[in-house]
Design a protein that fits this description.
With 252 residues, the chain is an alpha/beta fold. The protein has a four-stranded parallel β-sheet, sandwiched between helices. The longest helix has 26 residues.
Length: 252
């Protein structure tokens, strides 16, 4: 039985010990307005103090609701929230590739979707380096991926899979929700339906399976779900295996 309060204590202790051992100062977190980044922000605020946590809201043709949730979360936990608008940078980037190649725009769909998290990751590291210099202490970029997303490879390689420290990667979506409730993340944020803000579809709609089904495959080898869902989840895991390991030549 998952114990959310015990897990909260263990995560906060993990963060504190790692920062103390490595003489680190603060954390920079990309705030999307969704539950994963909300839970990470809450945990780091409790572990390091609100004065050592900076959230970055990085709109890029984003929904106004997400911005409102990001601001609400910042006010709720007391950490500083900065806005770094990537819309013009993104548009300029896409414009350049269209000038170079004159592509069919349908061929750019996946490239454009993956460009956004890559721009956001670059921004987080840019700002973390700035704060490290300004405040004379190292700031880490905290990741926000959960176990279900990672298992099926639902992340952008070179984007939201890049971080200096991860605290949710061993938690399923239901466990993230439980931790969020335990630390007081606002109800409508912790239960907000996750989506990419682009397609009009939820993450589960895009994946074609439910996060609870992914969790069952991880925890029970899919014994409690139907064969179609189980096969799709295993297929996603296998298809995206290239995201987990970089093939590297080793000399004999």
């Amino acid at each position: 039985m998952f114990n959310a309060n015990k897990t909260v204590y263990e995560i906060i202790t993990f963060i504190k010990n790692y920062y103390k051992k490595n003489n680190l100062k603060g954390a920079v977190i990309g705030i999307s307005g969704g539950k994963d980044s909300a839970v990470v922000a809450g945990l780091f605020t409790k572990a390091l103090g609100k004065e050592n946590v900076t959230g970055i809201w990085m709109p890029c043709h984003s929904k106004e609701e997400d911005k409102k949730n990001a601001i609400e979360l910042s006010n709720h936990f007391g950490f500083e929230l900065k806005e770094f608008d990537l819309t013009d940078i993104y548009d300029s980037y896409v414009k350049q590739i269209t000038i170079i190649n004159n592509p069919n725009m349908d061929d750019l769909i996946d490239s454009n979707i993956n460009l956004k998290p890559r721009l956001r990751t670059a921004t987080l590291y840019y700002y973390a380096a700035y704060l490290s210099k300004k405040n004379k202490g190292s700031y880490l970029v905290a990741g926000t991926s959960n176990k279900c997303e990672v298992y099926v490879g639902y992340f952008t390689k070179g984007g939201d899979n890049i971080a200096d420290i991860e605290v949710l990667e061993d938690l399923t979506v239901d466990e993230v929700i439980a931790v969020g409730k335990a630390i007081g993340v606002p109800y409508h944020i912790v239960y907000k339906t996750p989506d990419d803000g682009l397609s009009g579809l939820s993450d589960e709609d895009k994946l074609g399976v439910k996060y609870s089904e992914i969790a069952d495959v991880i925890e029970n080898d899919g014994k409690n779900i139907n064969k179609v869902a189980r096969k799709k989840i295993y297929d996603l895991h296998q298809k995206n295996s290239h995201k987990f390991n970089t093939p590297t030549f080793r000399k004999k």
